[in-house]
C-alpha cells in the first residue's frame, strides 16, 4: 500500500517532527521506524480542531526565522488555521502546481488568467507559482472585476482561466449581458477550477458555453495549498502526487480504512512539507480511490474520484442523506434552469422543511417544472418546496458559492 519512496519520506517527516516539535512528536506515539502500511495506520489522526487548538504554531516544525510567509484556511471560522511556509515549501508548491498545469495541457505558450485572490486564501499564489515555473505569461487579476476580466480575456488573449468553480457562472452572466461570446471573442481553451464541489453537469454546461476543456484541481491550505491533485485529459479521476502525499480513504464513522472503490473520507499525509508537516490529516472530503494503475494519459499515480462533498456538507432530511452536489446534478439536466440555486432549510412546526430556489432560463414552463419536481422527488423520496425565481434573484458571492442556508433553530 505504501511505496519504498513514501516510507522513506514518511520517516524523514517523522524525524523532522521529532527534531523540531517535541509536543507534536509525543502525540504521534511512535517509538521506531515505520516499516509498513500497518505501522502507518496505527498513527493518530490530525483534525481541524487539533490545528485550531494549536494556533498559531503548535504543529509547526521549522524555526520562525525560516518562515517566508503564511496562508489561512478559507473555510476557517473562529480560531484560524494557518500554514507557515518555508522557502522549500514554496518551491514544493511551485513544483506540484507546474505538474498540474502540464497535466491540464498548459505550457509556456499559454496566457494564464488567475482569478482566485492573492491574500490569506492560498489559491492565487499557488496558480501564480506554478505558472512562473512553466514560464507562462500570467495575468494576476484576482477575484471580481468581471467586466475587466472579459476585457483582458479578449484583448490579452488569455488561453487558460483559473478560478474557484462557481466563478465561471458569474463570468457567463456578465458575458451574456455584454454580448460577449467566449467562443468568438476569446482564445480560451482550458479552465482549471476548484475550491468547491462542482458536478459533472455543471462542468458540461461551462464547457459548452465557454468552449473550453475543464480540469478539476484539489488542494487545501493545511496540506500546502492548491495542487494536491488534478484530473487529466481522460477525466476519469484526479491524479494525486504520491511522491509528495499519502492518500487514504476511511469510513468517517468507524475511522477504519475502506477498500478501493468505496466512498469515504480522504485522509492526507504530507511527505515533503517543512513548516506544517501533517500526519494522517482528516480532510472531511468525500471521495474514493479510483485507480492505482498507470493511466492512459501516461501518469502513474494514485487516482481519486472527484470530490462529492464534505462530511459536514451532507444533509439529512426526513431520514434521507444527500449532498447539495447531487441536487445540482439533477437541476443542470435542464437547460431551462440557471446554474444558480440555493437550498433553504427551516423548522416548521417541529418538522424539517426544505425549499429549493432555482433561477429560470429562457424556455422554462409548467411542463419543465413538473419534470424537475418529479426527478427531485424520485431522488429524495420526499416532497420539497420548489420555487422558481427570476434570473438574478439569488444573491451572488465573490467567494465560494453559498448553496445551503440553514435557518433551523434560528
Oligomer: single chain
- The assigned structural class equals alpha/beta
Beta-strand proportion = 25-35%
The spatial strand order of the largest sheet comes to 4-3-5-6-7-8-9-14-13
**Helical residues, percent:** 25-40%
Low-confidence stretches: none
Give a count of the beta strands, DSSP E runs of length 2 or more. 21
Question: Distance N terminus to C terminus?
Answer: 47 Å
Tally the helices: what do you get?
Answer: 12
Give Rg in angstroms.
Answer: 22 Å
For the sheet with most strands, the description reads:
9 strands, mixed
Backbone shape: globular
For the residues shown, what is the average pLDDT? 93
Salient structural properties:
410 residues; alpha/beta; nine-stranded mixed sheet; globular
Q: How would you sum up this structure, described in words?
A:
The protein has helices at 4-20, 22-28, 37-40, 48-53, 87-103, 123-133, 146-155, 167-178, 182-185, 200-210, 324-331, 366-380, and strands at 69-72, 82-85, 111-114, 137-139, 160-164, 190-194, 213-220, 225-231, 238-240, 245-250, 264-270, 281-287, 289-291, 303-304, 309-310, 315-317, 320-322, 337-348, 351-360, 385-389, 404-406. Helix content is 30%, strand content 26%. The longest helix has 17 residues, at 4-20. It is α/β, with parallel strands linked by helices. Strands 4-3-5-6-7-8-9-14-13 form a nine-stranded mixed beta sheet, with helices on both faces. A four-stranded antiparallel beta sheet has the order 10-11-12-15. The model has no long low-confidence stretch (mean pLDDT 93).
